[in-house]
Amino acid sequence: MDSILLKDHSDKKLIEKLSSAFTLSDMEIFIFPELFYPLVLADIMSPELWKWKEDPWFKDIEKKSFTVKANRIKQYIIQNYVFNLDLSTWGLTSKSTEIARFSDFFDMEMLKQSNALFGYEGDKYYFDIDIRKHFGLDKYNSDIIPYWKTETIEAMGAFRYKENFNTGAGECVSLSALYASAMFVVGRVPLEKIFLIATPLHSQNFVIEKDGLITNNRRIVTKNMWYNGTSLSEKARRAMENEKVTIVSHISGYIHTLYKEATIDKQAYEFFSYKLKEFLSTELTSLIFINFLRFKSKYKNLFQYRCDCDGMKRYITLEKLFEYEHSSKFSVSAETRGSLVKEIEGDDFHLSPIEWKIMLNDIETILDKHRGNSLSEIEDEFIQKTGTEFEDIIKEMFKDISEFISINPKIPDSDKNYILSDRLHITTENSREEIIDLITKQYENSETALLALYVYRLMDMIDWHPFVKACIERNPVSFTDLYEKNNYEVYSLLKELPIDSIYDGNRLALPDEVWNFKRGDGIEKAFLLADFILHKDKASSVSIEIDGKQVLLSSGGHDFHFISKKNLKKSIHIKWKEYKIG
Known about the structure:
Elements: H1 12-23, H2 26-31, H3 36-45, H4 47-50, H5 66-80, E1 81-83, E2 92-94, H6 95-102, H7 108-111, H8 124-128, H9 131-134, E3 144-146, H10 153-158, E4 168-170, H11 172-185, E5 194-199, E6 202-207, E7 213-216, E8 219-222, H12 223-226, H13 231-242, E9 247-250, E10 253-256, E11 261-262, H14 266-279, H15 286-295, E12 303-309, E13 312-317, H16 318-325, H17 334-342, E14 358-359, H18 360-369, H19 375-386, H20 391-405, E15 417-418, H21 432-442, H22 447-456, H23 465-473, H24 476-482, H25 487-496, H26 511-517, H27 522-536, E16 541-547, E17 550-555, E18 558-563, E19 569-575, E20 578-581
Parallel strand pairs: 1-4, 11-15, 12-14
Antiparallel strand pairs: 2-3, 5-6, 5-9, 6-7, 7-8, 9-10, 12-13, 16-17, 16-19, 17-18, 19-20
Helix pairs in contact: 1-22, 1-23, 3-11, 3-22, 18-19, 19-20, 21-22, 23-27, 25-27, 26-27
């Protein structure tokens, strides 16, 4: 296998991009959107994902419908991964540090338009709760921000080794990539139908199958679920309702709200835009109206419901109906409302119509009669039926209904300069080995393939310079935790850890992955110790000699020996931000 050797290590933008392929912070993916889909491909290349197909939970999954496949994948992810977005896992950086990294090739003022921690205020919800306090940043000065690194499937699974975790874990971008890759490998959904959507504060996927499907952290949301008015759909809707979409990523490329050039296939993006807008719009029916009232609870108290109970007309407030819904398997929706009414205590009914409340029965008749009419026409019918005393609140309600049944997503403008790139033709019929072979053969012509090899950490093929840079410059947790110790104390702690990498083959973990999950190959441990030594004394230098099983770290006249189970051979000399690799 030929190695990828970079010709110019002084190309700052290229080195930062390739180095970012290892750490994959939210900030790095924002600056380099071309890294987003390679994360999906790295998960697809991973043996960890293909093991899912051997789980009894997915037996005969290929024979199931798309809906069954999606729900099986959802349940598996819910059972095996939790959402994690703490500050301690991947540590902290600062605005000034990140600005220094990227200011040579990115307008930092533009960053404030799209990044919450740099001043973006698109979703008022987060700022109403004080975003810095919400994420525990209020104890630091305003320059401090979290890394929030995106995890590979290996790092997500390794959380089970971490204290206070019983399963795997990951943040929202990690879960998006995991969902996309699982939909492809296990659900056999073509990559052409899977789009990753990033907003400043969230990451979701849109899968174009049937009416469409949105993944939201560990959950999935169908079109029917989008409008059911539950707390799950409310959370899923929040990003689309309030935030700009900064990146849409696809197997054909990406489009970014701030960049004039896009690499995504233009027709694919236009189809995505059409299908997403179709997903985010529906007509007002009796069912959707009930769901809206569940969603916007302040309007419930306007209505009462008339029912025939034992041949007598009785009346009940809609608030009371929804109250019973919480503890019943039946809902207020017309299909099961009769069964719900039978569960209601007799003294909750009124024998006469309740004063100053609108009859839901009459409203549902209007909705059924005028189905397909414009919202303004239905609103006029409501006002005619309810009288002028309700006119103001009805007008306010219809404004909210309009926003409930139709969202115009703030996606990147399609008016871009589209740059054709070599597309990876990966199908659901390909085996894992065939996919890896295809990607390794295409790296010279496809940047997506090249970046996938770096995200996947195929160390016996890629240039090590970006990896070493990532290890030394962006792994603060291990150094912070070990700060009070000396070199030999850290060495002793590392020797006690299992010689067990979370990555198979010749792939390597970063120092903070070693420290977080308390295990690592000898090469990985050597890089953690090198990171510690150089942060402790930036005037020091470190040499790491890797020769098969033997790993020797030398610094300041002291030698530290480690054992490796990898099959690698490298000679690495490191000074602070100076890396020589042979």
